[in-house]
Amino acid sequence: MPTIIENRRNLHQIPEIELTTQKTAQYIENVLDLYDCTIDHPIPNSVTAFFDNKKEKTIVFRSDMDALPMEENTDLEFKSTNGCMHACGHDGHMAMVLEIAKYTKESNYNVLLLFQPGEEKPGGAKPIIDTQFFKQFNIAAIYGTHIYPELEKGKVYTRPNEMMAGGCEFEILVKGKASHAAQPQNGINALTACVEILQKSLDQEEKTFDDNTFHLLHFGTFHSGQAFNIIADQAHVRGSIRYYDPKVFDQIVNIIEQNMNNAIKKYKVQVNFKVNHHYPPVLNNEELFHTLYKNNLVSKLDSPVLISEDFGYYRNVAPSIFFFLGTGDTIPLHSNKFTFDEDILKKGVELYRKLLTTKIPF
C-alpha cells in the first residue's frame, strides 16, 4: 500500500483543474482497488469508495480533488510542471482520506470515502448531491478538512454553526446607446446609470445592516467607455457578496435589483444581473461539534472565516462538520509558492481514526 506521503507527492505532480480531474480520479481508483470496497463515480471524475462493515449507519469522509491554474514556483523535487498547481492543499486532503482506507475495519460505522472535483469552481458538491447518490446510504455524519495557514501547526480547529462564509460572484451589464458627448440627447449613458446603481446599492447596504450583521458587498471590476468624447453604450461590473445568514444574501440581492430597476426607469437603460458562482455558508452541526469538543478531539476556532467552500451543501444530506488543520506560519493558500510540512497530514489521519469509533448523537 502506498504511504500517505507517497500519495500526497504523486497527486501533487498531476494537478488538474475544475471538473477535469481524470488522471487524479484514476490514481485514486488505482489505490482504492487495493482494498475491499465498492467504487463508484456519482459524477464524471469523482470517486467514492464504500466500505461495508455491516453496520446500520454510514459516516462520510470527503476530500476535494481539483487544483489551480497557476505555474508552480517551489523547489520541491515533486513539483508540478503542467501549468497547474495544488496551491490549496487538496493533494494533502486526498492523501489523508486515502490513508483512512487502511483503518475502516476499526469503525463502528460503514465508511464512505468521497473524492469530489470542482471545489474551487464551478462546484462539485451540488452536482453529486443532485444525482441522489447518497440516498442509498443511512448517513450519520459527513466530515471534511482543509489545511489552513496561520493556525497552530498540526492542531485541528472547528466551531459550531458558522465556519465559512457563503459567497457568490456576480456581474452587472448595463446597456445604453452611444453618441457624441456633445449630443447627449442622442445617447443613453450606460456609465452614468451603472455608477448610480453601484453607489446607491452601497449606500443602502450600509443603512440596512448594523455592525453585528456580517455582510460584504464588493464591486471589484468596472469596464465602460471607449473614448473620452463618446457616451458609453455599455458598462460591465463584476463583484462578490459574502454572508453567513442566507436571508442577508437575499436582502443584498434585493438592494441591487431595486437600484437596477430604478436606473432602468430613470435612464431607459437595459440591465442584466447574473450570479455566476454561488456557494452557501459552511454551517457546522452544533451537536456534532459539542460531541467532538467534549471528547477533546478538536480545538475551538475563535471566529468564522470569510473564504468560501462548497462543503456547505452537504448539510442538506446529513449532519456535517468541517475542520481546519493548521499548517503553522506558511506561505498563504493560492500562492504559487505554497507548501506545507507533510507531518501535519498524520495529525489529520489521527483525527479521522478517532472519528471512526466516536459515537455521534444521530
Automatic annotation (TrEMBL):
Peptidase M20 dimerisation domain location: 166-267
Superkingdom as given in the UniProt entry: Bacteria
Keyword flag Protease: no
Named cofactor requirement(s): Mn(2+)
Co-factor note (free text): The Mn(2+) ion enhances activity.
PANTHER family: METALLOPEPTIDASE, PUTATIVE (AFU_ORTHOLOGUE AFUA_6G09600)-RELATED (PTHR11014:SF63), PEPTIDASE M20 FAMILY MEMBER (PTHR11014)
Name of the protein in its database record: Amidohydrolase
